[in-house]
Structures are given as structure tokens and as C-alpha cells.
Amino acid sequence: MSASGQSMVIERWRQVESLFHAALEKTGEERAAFLTKACGNDQDLRLEVESLLASEDLAARFLESSGDGIQAGAPREPVPAGERFGPYVIVALVGAGGMGEVYQAHDERLDRDVAIKFVPVALADDAAARERFEREARAASALNHPNICTVYDTGQHQGRPFLVMELLEGQSLKQRMAEKLLPLQELLAVAGQVCAALQAAHAKGIVHRDVKPANIFVTAGGQVKILDFGLAKRAWDSAGSAAVSASSGAAPTKAHSLTGNLAGTLAYMSPEQAQGKEVDARTDLFSLGAVLYEMTTGRQPFQGETLGELIRAILTESPRRPSQLNPAVPKGLERIIGKALAKEPQARYQSAGDMAGELIAFAESRRRRSRLAMYVAALAASFALVAWLITRPEQGPRLEAFTQLTENLGEELYPSLSPDGKSFVYQSRASGKWGIYLRVVGADNPIALSKNSALDDTHPAFSPGGEQVAFRSERDGGGIFVMGLDGENVRRLTNFGYNPSWSPDGKEVVVSMQECLRPEERGPPPDAQLFRVNVATGGTRKIPGIDDALAPSWSPHGYRIAYWNSPRAARNISTVAADGGDPVPITADLALDWGPVWSPDGRYLYFASDRGGSMNLWRVRIDERSGKTEGAPEPVTTPAVSSGLMSFSRDGSRMLYAAQARDMNLYKIGFDPAREAIAGEPVQVTQSSKPLADPNFSPDGQWIVFNDRLTPQNLMVVRSNGTGLRRLTEGAQLDRCPRWSPDGQRIVFFSNRSGTWQTYTIDPEGGHLQCHTDAPGNGARLPRWSPDSKRVIYIANGKVGILDPAKAWSDQPARLLPDPGPGERFAVASWSPDGGMLAGELRQSPSGAAIGLAVYRLDAKTYERIGPAGTGTGARWLPDSRRILFLHDGELYLVSLASKRFHHVFSPGLRREITGFDLSRDGRWIVFTVEAAESDIWLANLR
User: Fold this and answer.
1) What CATH number should be reported for the domain holding residue 210?
2) Residue 81 to residues 89, 91, 103, 106, Cα–Cα distance (Å)
3) What is the β-pairing status of strands 244-245 and 264-265?
4) Contact (CB, 8 A) for 314 and 274
5) Domain total in the chain
6) 834 given a catalytic annotation
7) Over the stretch 429-476, which tens digit does the pLDDT of each residue have?
8) What mean pLDDT is reported for the chain?
């Protein structure tokens, strides 16, 4: 628009404003006579002034929804509680204002609470008010989206039009911002959901035209709802509303404007909207930019003492950069706001989807930088400690340099350094699946060794001569394979096994029957033995004397094999003679120790441990022949938040390790059981630097109980909106897998606080801790409530049992479920709401390999397999006891018992996976843990 055109618009606003204030001082016939004389034949001018006068009389727009525009207090003629019309029964008045009254009501037909919005008595006969109601109903009913307030019905009662809408609990964004500026994470979550709502509306050709904080509602559960489509119009309509409101939000009743097309709240209007031009989706994005500006700074982007000054600011002025008002505003977010507030529509985001994409990319970059910051902080602290260690004689290894060898997004794991220290192999998901890559130290171009495999290849290990690589592969049913350094000549050794470790002569490998990359998450296995495998013939022999061993490492002179295991619920390191015998413990304390690797000279055993407060590297001097330790563990500190998975060159001068960072927090998302689909976008519940796991809803859905995954592991509760975080248990023990009783009175979990895993209950306030089992062996774990809160299922030594928590363990006979089949065990996940079935997964014993989902029918005492073979963990029943949600490959799926068909429900996104989840009792909310893991390979020169 030209400067002269802008001046004309501003001058027109000044004229309207001047007449408006003059007319306010007059009433009745005197006002009418004044307007006739002042406006003359300019009917548009008179209609604009009359619109503002009507707005002043109305005082506030209706359904700025949480009550912002609804003044508490009684309307002139309130609808009494208990009054019925159609299927609706009035419960109580929620609020009243100039443009309407809102009541809480109950829909007896569908047995649900609703909100009913009435046109006020004073406007019941006003054609413009009725038209606005009808427009809101048409626009909102055309949209079915979880981030848009749903309109269920319309009608009239005693001559007054009404809308029936979903009843929301929470507060508007305007109210939330009045309390304090939103944290960045919440701001991004709100903005993303608003974008999703606008994208849905724009896809239907509907432009909201009044996006502002008062029309953005945040429910108690953190879900965003866009409200008040009373000004919405089809983007291709030529007719518009004259609903002009100043920053107060008042709405006029006349259907005219300066150009016949002006609508909205002036402080959030786009330039084209303020000029009365035709608008499209981009005007809503400008308004959202203004909202984001206010969310980050606490003030609106455009200011003015008068309407004319405000219009001038919108048309001609650039607001101050948000970071000038709030230095904490990130530059990336400031750029997004600036683009949304561009004066010309073509310079803005062209769709809500485009803007959402930029917000997501910004959030991801912040997440990555947050992890980088953790790395940097750890680096500084680690080097300070290293410097101190170096100055102390005979106190640990000399670390001379660190070099990062990989830097791709995602995880690079299980590095194995060639004997000469010049190259290494590792596993990565760079191709979308786990594959094995070869890389020269210092070079940037990895060579894919498993490019010919369509399935996962993992756990690579260089042979002592450096000419072969042993690895685990899922091809052909899974097992241990060997291949050349060019990825060719692939040959199977076994049809089982994980984590191969070569004998020093290169003639054998030792493998475990189980794998575990997350030792803090491992429960006691029924059996995890070690086997020696002849590389030439594939012949195998079990190493006697041990019944639980993972990640074996053969000593450099062939005398012993080191491993880690879970004795009596701990995580400790042991060794055993290569031919078997009695194990010799290396560590036996409460620290989490895992992943042992021998130094090339056999004088030290290196391992990962959290005994120093974070997961880092340690070593202990050892006699290789006897396995006896010759001193206490000493730190080998690396610049990483978490380190492990070591490998050495033959001369011991170089060491590879994986530097890891994990983000495991709780999120929630809406779910529609009828559509079997997600409703809305994920909302982050917790923001913890510790990994969190095993979330479970309280029966009313208001609280979530969970546990952390660092030693010690304690139980915590938090409100489902992320507030009220508190700890339930304290101590050095591991407390796991809490489950709220259906009656809400107790929380059951399992713990090693007695020395073995046993089942406990505690009340939601952290009192009345009680142990309910005294099971031998590995104890009793993974407890789950019956729907009547009177029984608990548990797993003990591979068997599923049922106990009565009201009785002492010694006073009740063992009630055990039958085995599913030979070599199979049943891992129970949940009890059906109707009480008749248990859902869980079948697993092979002793390997623990997945067989698939299954249901156990308590009356028939039979197992029934459901869903695809080999898939499914963490089964959760829907309220109808006929369908089950489950996890597969870090994503959510649903399966029906009747049809056995399953379909995909939700994915948390690229390089992220769900590690645990729960479904609310009404089936409408899912809480889940998302793990975003980063891992890179580092090289250290070691002396």
C-alpha cells in the first residue's frame, strides 16, 4: 500500500475514533441527531461509529473462552440449575458477558458434560448477533480437529439461540500469560498445536480472523484448543463482517465496515486486515506471530494510545526485536516471529504447516544444542578431574588426547578397534536399519559392510589378526556370523548368540544368550549362559559354572572370560575361567557396573560404572590367571555425559569408546478410542536430565507415577499437566514399574531393597510401605493389579503368579499360571478391565527372544496368540477389553482380539522411540516415555 493510501486509512480511523468518543457523551435521540449531522451522507462512516458504540455497550466478547471475556456474575435472566430442554440439563452458570452466557450442562442422551452458550437476552432479537452465532456454529462444526473446540449442537430455548460445545477445563493463554511468561518448551508446544488447528481450518477454506491469546485455550491436560469462530469466514467468500474490535476485544453487531470486510481484534490484526482488504490463511499466521511476540516479551508488538496510532504502527512500524525486551529469547525463535509478522503476506509463511515445520526444526535444534551443552559441561568437568588425576602419581591411567571420530545424528555403538589401531568397525542406523561400518581413523568416509543385508547387523568385533569381523545378524533367523573387511564371504557360525568376543588365537568366539544395551533397565533373567564357538567348524560348547552372563570379553592370554550380570538385583562384574568353574566377582556393590573389557596386557579390567555419579569408565587391577583383584576400582574419566563399550589397540596406546547422551522424558497425547487414532499433538510432561521410565496414570487421570533410571532408582509422581512433581521413595535401592491400584489407594512396584527383587506397595503420599512377597531365587517382579484392586499378578523365576495383597505371603498358597508351551514364558503386561484376561508377550527361554503378543484367559486357562509373530511389548487394554495397544520398534500399534488385525497408531518421530507407555482408564490419554539418544565414537590416547 502506498504511503498516501496508508495515510488515508489512518486518517479515516482517527475520524471514526473522534466521532465515537463524542457520541459516547450523548444518548438516545440526541446521539442519533449528532451522528446524522456529523456523518452527513457518509453512511459507511456512520455504520463504523455505530459499530463501536454497540461494542462499548456489549463490553466483552463471548467465549474468550476460559472466562476472559465472560464476566463472573449472574446474567439478567439466568437459566436456573436443573432446567431441561431437549436432552440437556443445566448444571451451573460458568460465566456471563456482553456476548453471551455459558452454562455447564449434562447431555443425558450421550451421558456427557457439555458447555452451552446462549445469546444474551438483550440480543436475542438482534439479527447480527444471531448471524454471528450461526456463523460460529457453521465454521466450528465444519472442523473436526483435536485442537479446535468442538461444537456438538445448536438450537433455541425460549427464543434464545444456543450452541452446545465440549466442556473444557483449564485457562486461556491470556490468563496463563498474565501469571508469567511461558517456559520455552511450553511456548513451542502451544504454538505447534495452534499451527495444527489453523492448518485444519485453512484446509477447509476457513480463516479464523481473530487469533489472539483470549481465543487460545490450554486445557488442564496441556492440550490447546482454538475458540470462537464467530468471525471466521470462507477464504473465497466476498461477504464479511463489520465486527471491528479494539484491543479490549469488544465485538460490534453491525455487518458493515470501512470497506465492508474488516473483522478481528485490532492489536493482533494483519496490515491487510486492518485496511479491510480480503484476507487468507496468511492473516491468521500474522496474528499468531503477534501472539508469539507477546508470549516471549509480555507485550503486544504494536502499540498506540489511540486507534489511529495503533493502525499506523501495524501498517508502517516494525516492532522492537523480542530479544531487546527479553534477552532470553533465542535468535531462532526471534527469526520465526519476525517472518510471521512481515507486512506483506507473500513475505510471511505461506501455510500453517510451513510455520509448524520451522517451529519443529527450531525445537529439534534446541534439543540437539542442549545435549551438546551437556557434553561441553561434562567435558569441562571431566578435563578438570583428568588434570587432577594426572598430577597424582600412580593414580590411574594417563589420558593424553581425545578425538571424536563420528558425529552423525543418532547412535553409533559397539566400536571395535583394529589390532593396529588404524581403523575401526561399529554399528549405526545411517541406512535406516542397524548396519556395520568400517572406517579409517581420521577419515570421514565410512564403508558399509552389511549393505547386502535387509535385516539388522550388530555387535561387530575385529578378529585378533585384523582380517575378519564377527557380528550378530538377524538374517536367516538370527545368529553369529563372520565376514571379511570388504563385507564379503559372510558365513554363519551359530543360530543364537550376541556380543561375540574373540579368543586371543582367533580360533573361537565366546557369546552370550542375551543382549542388553541399557543395563539399568534389565530385570533378572531366567537364564543367560555363555557358549564358546569354534570359528572353523561352528561347533559350540557351554561354559559351565555360570547361569547369568552378558557381554563377554576374553582375556588377552586366554585364561579367563569377563562378563556382567544381575545377581540379586545388582549390576556387577565377574570373571570365569575359559573352561568354566566358579565365577570370581570383581565388583559387588550398589553401583551399576557393566560392559567389561580387558586391557591388552591383561593387567586391568576396564568397565562402565555410575559409581562416580555418572556413567563413565573405570578400571581395576587384576590377576588374569586367578581373576583376583589387586586394588580398588579407579576412574578413567572421559569427556562425556555417559561412556561405555570400549575397545583397545593391540599395544594398548589407543582406546575407543562410545560417548552417549540420552533424553528420556514423559509426554502425553490425546487418543480417540472410537477412531482408534491419536487426537492432537504430544505435550511434554517432564523436563528432567535423568532418564525416566514406566509411567502409569492414576485412576482419575490427574497424576502419573513413574521411576527414574539412574542408580538409585526411586518412584516419583507428577500431575498430568507437569506440575506438582514429588518423590515417593528415597534410598540407594532400585524401585521399578509402579502401578496405581484401580481404587486409587495404593501403588504397587518391585524393588531390590531387601537384596532380591520383591513386590511392595506404598500409598500415593509415600507412606505405609509394605512388602508382599518373599519369593526365592530372583524374587517377584513386574506386579500388576486386578481391576477390582484385590489381586496382584507378578513374575517369579519365569512363572506368573497371583497373590492377595491383603494376606501375608506365608498365609497364601502359590497360584501359578500354566506355562505357555515348551521353552516359552509369559511376560504379563496388564489385566483386562473386565477381569477375565491377561495380556502380555510370549518369549523364548532362556534367550528372551520375542515370540509375539498373547492373551491368557483366566477361566479357560488357555493362551491365545494375537498380532504378528515376534512383535509387541507393553500391552495395554482399551476400556472395552476387546482391543490392545502395544509397542513395536518404539512406535504404538493397536490390535483387535476379534479380527487379529493391527494397525499403526503413533510414531514419536525420526531417531526417537517410545520405551514405555500407559493408557488412561477412560482410554482418552496416553502417557509415554520418549527416548532420544545420541552416541558417537571417540578415540583416546592412553598411557
Assistant:
1) 1.10.510.10
2) 8, 5, 9, 11
3) parallel
4) yes
5) 3
6) no
7) 888 789 999 999 988 889 999 888 888 999 999 999 999 999 999 998
8) 81
Q: What is the CA radius of gyration of the chain?
A: 33
Query: Cα separation of 383 and 773, whole Å?
Result: 47
Given the residues 107, 210, 663, 936, the one annotated as active site: 210
The verdict on residue 371 lying in a domain is no
Instruction: Give the angle subtended at the CA of 685 by the CAs of 680 and 691, to the nearest 5°.
Output: 125
Find out whether 96 and 73 touch, Cβ atoms under 8 Å: yes
Find out whether 556 and 570 touch, Cβ atoms under 8 Å: no
What per-residue confidence (pLDDT) applies to 380? 43
Domain end residue (candidates: 604, 638, 657): 657
Cα–Cα–Cα angle for 224, 229, 232, rounded to 5 degrees? 125
Q: For residue 528, what is the DSSP state?
A: B
Q: Which parts of 530-626 fold into alpha helices (H)?
A: none
pLDDT digits (tens, 9 = 90+) for 552-607: 999 999 999 999 988 765 789 999 999 999 999 999 877 889 999 999 999 999 99
The CATH number of residue 514's host domain is: 2.120.10.30
Are both 644 and 719 inside the same structural domain? Answer: no
Q: Is the model more confident about 248 or about 735?
A: 735
What Cα–Cα distance (Å) separates residue 30 from each residue in 19, 22, 24, 35, 613?
Answer: 14, 11, 11, 9, 81
Give the least confident one: 379-383, 422-426, 820-824. Answer: 379-383
**SS3 at position 1:** coil
- Indicate whether 941 belongs to any domain: no
**How many other CB atoms sit within 10 Å of the CB of residue 358?**
18
Same domain, 340 and 194: yes
- Whole-model pTM over 0.90: no
Q: Give yes or no: residues 263 and 149 share one domain.
A: yes
Q: What is the pLDDT of residue 368?
A: 56
**Cell numbers linked to 780:** 517377584
What is d(CA 115, CA 708) in angstroms, rounded to the nearest whole number? 40
pLDDT score recorded for residue 438? 96
Q: Is residue 389 part of a domain?
A: no
Q: Are residues 271 and 125 in the same domain?
A: yes
Residue 604, C-alpha cell as written in the block: 586391568
Mind listing the pLDDT tens digit for each residue in 521-557?
Answer: 675 555 688 999 999 999 999 999 888 899 999 999 9
737-753 residue pLDDT tens:
999 999 999 999 999 88
The answer as to whether 902 is a domain residue is yes
363, 397, 416 - which closes a domain: 363
Whether residues 668 and 632 share a domain: the answer is: no
Burial 403-433 (b: 16+ CB within 10 A, else e): eebbeeebbbbbbbbbbebebbbbbbbbeee
The beta-strand segments (E) located in 513-592 are: 530-534, 540-542, 550-554, 560-565, 572-577, 584-585
Residues 288 and 431 in one domain: no
Range of the structural domain that residue 521 is part of: 408-657
Answer yes or no: do 304 and 439 share one domain.
no
Residue 116 shares a structural domain with residue 248 = yes
Handedness of CA 479, 480, 484, 486 (dihedral sign): positive
Q: Which of 64-73, 811-820, 837-846 has the lowest mean pLDDT?
A: 64-73
Q: Scanning the structure block, which residue is given the C-alpha cell 561399529?
A: 426
Contacts of 167 (CB under 8 A, 6+ apart): 104, 113, 114, 115
